[in-house]
UniProtKB/TrEMBL annotation:
GO terms for cellular component: chromatin; nucleus. It is found in: Nucleus. It comes from the Eukaryota. The gene is Tbx6l_1. One of its GO terms (molecular function) is RNA polymerase II cis-regulatory region sequence-specific DNA binding. One of its GO terms (biological process) is cell fate specification. Keywords: Developmental protein, DNA-binding, Nucleus, Transcription, Transcription regulation. Transmembrane segments: none annotated. The lineage of its organism: Eukaryota, Metazoa, Chordata, Craniata, Vertebrata. This is TBX6L protein.
Length: 179
């Protein structure tokens, strides 16, 4: 996981990610460094999001608490990195960024964004699949990775003021909010 220091800062106070109808990019963004691939073999890079538990949460007096049972699970969507498929040498030469991935709460989304429920906790999972194309994925060799530091609560507005401050201080796209 790239930017581990930044992810840790967020993780320590409870990362929140905004979801919107039109889709919102993540910050910090998901970026991983990959090694050990066969340089000439083709791979697909994918990411999906799995619920951390069966609960819905609410922000109460400066902390997250369980607010009931989770909403029924939405059909799992997987984001395919736009460079897929590419040779192992391509994926290993620099960190793989999932910066274009967007999160939405629009259950009718037609843009391929990841659909999540607000006030639920999720963990991104990264899939590295040795395959020539999407159609041969099911018979392929694959690895799945996740990082505990990337767990987040999906929200439509930040609940924790410390998260808001960290996002403004560290996100280059939030410069309009800085003094």
């Amino acid at each position: 996981l790239e930017d581990m220091g930044l992810w840790m800062k967020f993780h320590q106070i409870g990362t929140e990610m905004i979801i919107t109808k039109s889709g919102r990019r993540m910050f910090p963004q998901c970026k991983i460094k990959v090694s050990g691939l066969i340089p000439y073999a083709k791979y697909l890079m994918l990411v999906d999001f799995v619920p951390m538990d069966n609960f819905r949460y609410k922000w109460n007096k400066d902390q997250w608490e369980v607010a009931g049972k989770a909403e029924p699970q939405l059909p799992c969507r997987t984001y395919v990195h736009p460079d897929s498929p590419a040779p192992g040498s391509h994926w290993m030469k620099e960190p793989v960024s999932f910066q274009k991935l967007k999160l939405t709460n629009n259950t009718l989304d037609q843009h391929g964004h990841i659909i999540l429920h607000s006030m639920h906790r999720y963990k991104p999972r990264f899939h590295i699949v040795q395959a020539d194309d999407l159609f041969s994925v099911r018979w392929s060799i694959f690895q799945v990775f996740s990082f505990p530091e990337t767990v987040f609560t999906s929200v439509t507005a930040y609940q924790n003021e410390q998260i808001t401050k960290l996002k403004i201080d560290n996100n280059p796209f939030a410069k309009g909010f800085r003094e």
